[in-house]
Amino acid sequence: MSISPPDRTVDQPVHLPVDLPVDLPVDRRSPASPRRREGVLALSRAFDLLGPPGAGLIVAVLGQGPSDSAQLRNRLRGISDVELAIRLHDLIAAGLVKRIPATDASHGGRYTLDEAGKALVIPLAGLLVWAEDHL
After folding, report:
1. SS3 107
2. Which residue intervals define the domain HTH hxlR-type in the entry (predicted)?
3. Domain residue ranges of the chain, discontinuous segments joined by +
4. Which of 8, 31, 32, 42 has its CA 20 to 30 A from that of 1?
5. How far apart are the first and last CA of the chain?
6. CATH T-level fold of 54-134
């Protein structure tokens, strides 16, 4: 069984199978259009936000429903209390997560996804499928 090389040359643009707001050329010397730069910057901001350990997993867990800090810690083994607090703070500041205040004094409140966080669940599910298949 032989595998034939793809029908495109190195100088041709890469066309991704999904509709991204950016068409990334293989030739990095070509000037970037303003739209492509905006798309790359947006993707970079997303990776900056979701890149720290636990950040994407917090969104995935909250995609299954609201949780308090203890429930998140139990689901996210290996993340310290300090890391969890920092990640939650960053995700709240980014508008992905919101905190629901406790109704009684003994409970610290719960966390849930905001609209932007809910919109992120589907792309995270796609990333999960890719990771299971390729990593």
Report:
1. coil
2. 33-135
3. 54-134
4. 8
5. 25
6. Arc Repressor Mutant, subunit A (1.10.10)
